[in-house]
Design goal:
Layout (H helix, E strand, L loop, with lengths): L5 E5 L5 H10 L3 E5 L3 H5 L7 E2 L3 H5 L4 E4 L4 H9 L4 H4 L5 E4 L5 H13 L3 E4 L2 E2 L1 H7 L2 E6 L2 H6 L1 H7 E7 L3 H29 L4 H8 L7 H12 L8 H17 L5 H18 L7 H12 L1
Parallel strand pairs: 1-2, 1-4, 2-3, 4-5, 5-6, 8-9
Antiparallel strand pairs: 7-8
Helix pairs in contact: 4-6, 10-12, 10-13, 10-14, 10-15, 13-14, 14-15
Length: about 300
C-alpha cells in the first residue's frame, strides 16, 4: 500500500532531507528535488529518486511535501510560470511544511483549490533531530478529511494535530516560534547570569532538570550553550524570519506583544553581528557581546 503512494519532497535541506529519507525507508515511493543538486543526491542511498526539476518531481505524485526556506521561495516554486501547483495531478495533495506567513498559506490554498488540489499547511516543530527521529510536532491546517487521508504519511514523521482551516497551521507555528524564541533567550540570560555570578553553567543546568524551569528547549539548547556547540539545527536567520512574521501578523490583528518584540530585536542584532547561520541557541553570544559593551 505504501509503495503505491508516490510522494514528492520539494526542498531537501536541514529538515527536508531527513523527511524524505524517513518516508522512503517506511516504504513509500519518494522523489525529491532541491535547488542545490548535491544535497538531494545524497538521498539516493536511501532509495529516493532525484528529479532534475520540481515539475518533474511532482508530475506523478499523489502527495507533494514542500519544505522550502520562506514564503517568497515557496511562492516562486509553487506558483511560478512553471510552478509545482500547475504541474500536480488533480485530486493530489499539497502539504506545505515550510514556515510561511498565514496570508501566504491562505492564498496558496485558494490557488490549489482552483486546480482541484487539496492543500494542507503543516509546519513542524522539533528541529533536525525531530525530523531524523520521526518525532516532529505537526500543526495542520486544512480540511479534516484531507489530513485524515494522510495519517500514514504523517505518522512516519511525528504527531499531527488538525488545528483548523488552511492558514491555521502556520498561525500555530507562529505561536510555537514565539514560545521557543522567548524560552531560548530566557535560558541564555539565566546561564549568563549563573556564569557571571560565579556558578558553573553546566552544574546549574543539571540542577534545574526536572523542575519547573525544565523543558525541551532548556535541555537541548541549554546543553548547546554550555558546550558552545552552535552547529545549526535551527539557524538564527530563520528564527528572525518567524518572530518578525509573527509580530507583523499580531499588528495586523491589533495586538502588541512587548516580550516578543524584545526577543525579536535581540535575534535581529545577533544576525546583524554575523551569526545568522549559527543555531538560534547562539543568541547567548549576542548577550555576551551586549554585556561586554555595557561593561
Amino acid at each position: 500500500m505504501r509503495a503505491a503512494r508516490r510522494i514528492a519532497v520539494i526542498g531537501t535541506g536541514i529538515m527536508g532531507a531527513p523527511i524524505a529519507r524517513r518516508l522512503s525507508q517506511a516504504g513509500f515511493t519518494v522523489t525529491a528535488w532541491n535547488r542545490t543538486d548535491e544535497k538531494a543526491a545524497k538521498l539516493t542511498e536511501a532509495g529516493v529518486v532525484v528529479a532534475r526539476t520540481p515539475t518533474e518531481a511532482v508530475r506523478d505524485a499523489d502527495v507533494v511535501i514542500c519544505m522550502l526556506a520562506n514564503g517568497p521561495v515557496c511562492d516562486a516554486v509553487l506558483l511560478g510560470a512553471e510552478g509545482v501547483i500547475g504541474s500536480m495531478r488533480t485530486a493530489s495533495t499539497l502539504v506545505v511544511m515550510s514556515s510561511i506567513p498565514v496570508e501566504t498559506a491562505v492564498a496558496q490554498a485558494e490557488q490549489a483549490a482552483r486546480r482541484g488540489i487539496d492543500y494542507i499547511d503543516a509546519p513542524v516543530s522539533g528541529g533536525e533531530r525531530g525530523a531524523q527521529d520521526g518525532t516532529l510536532a505537526i500543526m495542520a491546517g486544512g480540511a479534516a478529511h484531507s489530513i485524515a487521508r494522510l495519517l500514514d504519511v504523517f505518522d512516519c514523521l511525528g504527531r499531527v494535530t488538525h488545528v483548523g482551516p488552511a492558514g491555521t497551521g502556520e498561525l500555530t507555528k507562529l505561536a510555537n516560534q514565539l514560545i521557543v524564541a522567548s524560552t531560548i533567550c530566557a535560558v541564555a540570560e539565566a546561564l549568563t547570569l549563573a556564569r557571571r555570578g560565579g556558578a558553573e553553567p553546566a552544574r546549574v543546568r543539571e540542577a534545574l532538570l526536572g523542575g519547573f524551569a525544565d523543558s525541551t528547549v532548556f535541555r537541548q539548547h541549554g546543553l548547546r550553550m554550555v558546550e558552545g556547540n552552535f552547529q545549526p539545527g535551527g539557524p538564527a536567520k530563520y528564527q528572525v524570519k518567524d518572530t518578525s512574521t509573527a509580530l507583523a501578523f499580531a499588528r495586523s490583528v491589533g495586538l502588541t506583544l512587548p516580550v516578543s518584540e524584545e526577543v525579536d530585536r535581540l535575534f535581529q542584532q545577533m544576525v546583524e553581528s554575523g551569526d545568522g547561520d549559527l543555531d538560534h541557541s547562539a543568541v547567548i553570544l549576542e548577550l555576551q557581546r551586549l554585556n561586554s559593551r555595557a561593561a
